[in-house]
Amino acid sequence: MNNVRRAGLRRGAAALVLGLAAATAGAVVPGTATSAPTDDCPEAFPAEELAAGQAVDGLTVTSGSEPTGFSGTIKGVIVDGIAPGVDMVMADLTSPEIDRVGGIWQGMSGSPVYAGDGRLVGAVAYGLSWGPSPVAGITPAAAMYDLLEGGGPAPAEQVDVPPEQRPALRESGASKRQVDSGYRQLPMPVGVSGLSPRRLGQATKAFGFEGLDVYATGAAPTSSAAPVVAMAPGGNLAAAMSYGDVSALGVGSTTAVCGVQVLGFGHPANFVGPTTMTMHNADAVYIQEDPVAAPFKVANPGPPQGTVTEDRLAAVLGVVGPLPEATTVSSLTQLAGTTKSRTGETRISVPSMVADLAATHLLANQDRVYDGVRRGSTSATWTFTGTRPNGAPWSLTRTDHLSNASDISFIAPMHLYFQLSGIQDALDGRGRGRIESVDINSTMHERRRTWNVAKAEVRRPGGWVTFERGTRVRARAGSTLRLRVSLRSVDNYLGRKVVRMRVAVPKRAAGASGVLRVLPSTALWDQPEVEGTGFDKVLARVAAMPRESDLVAVLNTNAGRRGLSTRTDRTLDAAVRGRARVTVRVVR
Q: Potential cystine with 239: which of 36, 143, 277, 582 (Cβ 3.0-4.6 Å)?
C-alpha cells in the first residue's frame, strides 16, 4: 500500500472519530470529539480508463478489525456488466489469505480497491459462480458515490464473461465451468444469533424468512458501553435487521468513509431501497476455506454505530450517529420448580421483520432455559404496544397455556408469530403506525399441564344426559342448555375437575336440527365475528384468536339460509384437548 493510501486511511479513521460526537448528541453511540469531519471520499478512478494488466491494491480484514492489504491486476471491464450504465471491473487478486483459502470470500464484499495513484477503483463485490476463485468483479467507485445523492438501476442476477476475456481467466486458474457460469454477487447470507443450526433451520421455515439465506452467527450487543471500533475503509461492516439476543445481519466490508457517511458491500444487502437497518463494525474471527462454494468470513458484530439508510444496486449507505427506531422485544423465561431463568432483549429496526424476529427471540430464550427438545407445557403472557396509522397508541395483552408432547419450546413462538404477523400486515405501508414493544413472560413446565375432556353431559328433564354417539336430545327454542364437562389431566398431573357451562338455543331455530359440541377453541374452523373497522378490527381479531386453554361449547343448527350458531367460551388454567358431541332437535 503506497503512502498516499496510508495517509488516506489515517485521515478516514480520524474523520470518523471526529464525527461521532457531532452527529450523535443525545444518541446512544459514544463519542469524544467536538468538531465535524472535513475529509472527502477518495477520488473515483474512471472505469473506462482502466487497462488490462494495470496494478491495483486494496484493503480488507482477515482477522480482528484492522484492515490488511492485498494486491492484484486488472483483467478488463465488462461494459454494463452490473446494470445499464454500470460497468463491472474484473481483477485477479492475491494476498497470503486469499491464496490460503483459494480465492475471495463472502464478507469481502465492499473491500476497497485502489489504483496506484490512490484513487478508488471500486469495491470487491462479485465472484465467479462456482467455487473459490481469486478473480473478483469490482463495482466502480463512481456508481457507489451516486448513492450519496440517491438512486440507482436494478442489478443483473448473472453477468456473462465476454469471449475475448475468457482465455485470461482460464490462465488465472478459473475452471471452464466457472468461466461459463459467469459472475454473480458475492453471497450476502444473513447471520442469525441465538439458535443452534438445527433450530435455525426450523425457524427459517416456520417464521417466514422468505428469500433469506440464513446461518448461525454471534450476537451484536445492545449495550452502548460495549467497545466501539470506528468504521474505516477495508474494515468490517455489518447491516442488521435486529441486534441483541437475536441479531440478524449481513457482514461485509466498508469501501469508503465520507465524513459521517459510510459506503460498503458494493452490491445490495436485500435491495429494498430506503431502509432502517442498524450499522455495526465487527471483529473477524477467521476466514473459513470452502472447496465447494466460496470461502466465508466468521465474525462477531459490535454495537450499533448508526443507521443504514440506503440498500441499493451499487452499495449500502450508512450514517454514523443516531440509531433507527426499533421495536424492543423483552422477555423473562423461567422453568417452574427450579432456579433456571433468563431475561432477554432484542431490538428490531426493520418493521417488516418484527414477527419473524420476535418469535425467534422467544424460541432462543426458551431453548436456553428448557435446554432440550422435549415434551412439556408453557404458560405465556405477552403484551404488544405501538401506534395506530393515525398516531394514536394501542396495546394488546394475551395469555395462554400451551402443551406439546414432543417440542414445547416451539409452540409459544408459533402463536406469537401468527398474532404479530396479523398486526404487522395491517400496519405495513400505512404511515406512522408501528409495533413499539413486545414484552413476554413465559413459565415452562417439564410436565404436560393438559386437561382432557373425559365426559360431557347436558341437563334435561329427569337428569343429566351423557354425550354419546347415537344419542339425541330435545331443546326448546329460546331456552338455555346447561352443561357439565368432566376433565381429567394427562398423567393425572392436575387431577380432575368439573366445568359447568351454558349455551343459548336460538329463538329462530325452532324445527331445526343441529349438533352440540364441547371442544378446544383451537379445533374450531369458524371463529366469532368481531366489531370495528380498519386497524381496530385487526386488533380485535388477534385478541379473539383461539387459545389452547379455551374450552368451547357450541351449538350449530341448520336453521335459516346459513344456519344459526351460539357458543360459550371458558378459559382454563391449562391447555385442553379432546371433544364430545350430541345431536340436538330444536322444538317450539
A: 277
